[in-house]
Amino acid sequence: MEFRHLGRSGLMVSEISYGNWITHGSQVEEDAAKECVKAALDEGITTFDTADVYAGTKAEEVLGRALKGVRRESLEIFTKVYWPTGPGPNDRGLSRKHITESIHGSLRRLQTDYVDLYQAHRFDHETPLEETLKTFDDLVRQGKVLYVGVSEWNAEQIAAALKIADEMGFDRLVSNQPQYSMLWRVIEAEVVPLCQKEGLGQVVWSPIAQGVLTGKYLPGQPPPAGSRATDPTGGNFISRMLADDVLTRVQELKPIAADLGLTMAQLAVAWVLQNPNVSSAIVGATKPEQVRDNVKAAGVKLDAEVLKKIDDVLDPIVERDPAKTVSPPKRP
Predict the structure, then answer these.
(1) Among candidates 66, 65, 58, 25, which has minimal Cα distance to 42?
(2) 76-81 and 115-120: which strand pairing?
(3) What is the pLDDT of residues 28-38, one digit of tens each?
(4) In the record, what terms sit under GO molecular function (predicted)?
């Protein structure tokens, strides 16, 4: 495993991080989840990403139990706040009330005194940005959070947060957690240039495009049983990538991967790691073998010729529109 700084901060994170969206607490049984976490640790992964909303808070509980007994100082634990975790009007968003209550719940479920990175899971159009950033800053000063970041914020929103933090003397954001893959490059035009300039690193999710870039989904055929596409939550995210024109072109990546001695998944993860603004690529797994396969992408260097071949294959189907990075609007 190789390590990178999280943005311009001093925090080092593993190039490959382990995430438990969808899987822990819902798609796989707890014993299997623990085996995946063990495999991640065995392979040198030290960075673990979750969120309060995953599996209705159960994912944090499973991860907390899976990491119990591991030396806390050897881990980087990330979690997030924003989405609803209860029925009340204050059980969501980035208000001082919800952030404060959410971090206490996350710490309890994760069985830890602090998280290394606390992220705003989406932009909250209903809460003043100053309120959110002041609350984050307070949590840092209290030692409950070491670093703060955001997830799926656009460049304008990130810039506004950085301006307020600088003016008010708050802790600055060090990271953004966007979707990013060979097929989904919406951060490249605006978010990445801003983050490179301002010192934020990308902790990217879905580098394998919800499994599409493994090549297991074939044009003209139904998704394999038990795959992400058949999961009620994952299926919503993957459906747009299951068009036959996308799947046909993905199949054309197989000889490129084979020539490099890589699996399709390894090629996909290695590709996002070629971007110098990417600090870590999050992988999920339902089986330990998937973790062991994915980590082999760490340290892989793809030369310009390979990157061009990939672009030549995928360019007509790549999504690049920066406007695709969106957060929910105000409630009516």
Answers:
(1) 66
(2) parallel
(3) 678 888 999 99
(4) oxidoreductase activity
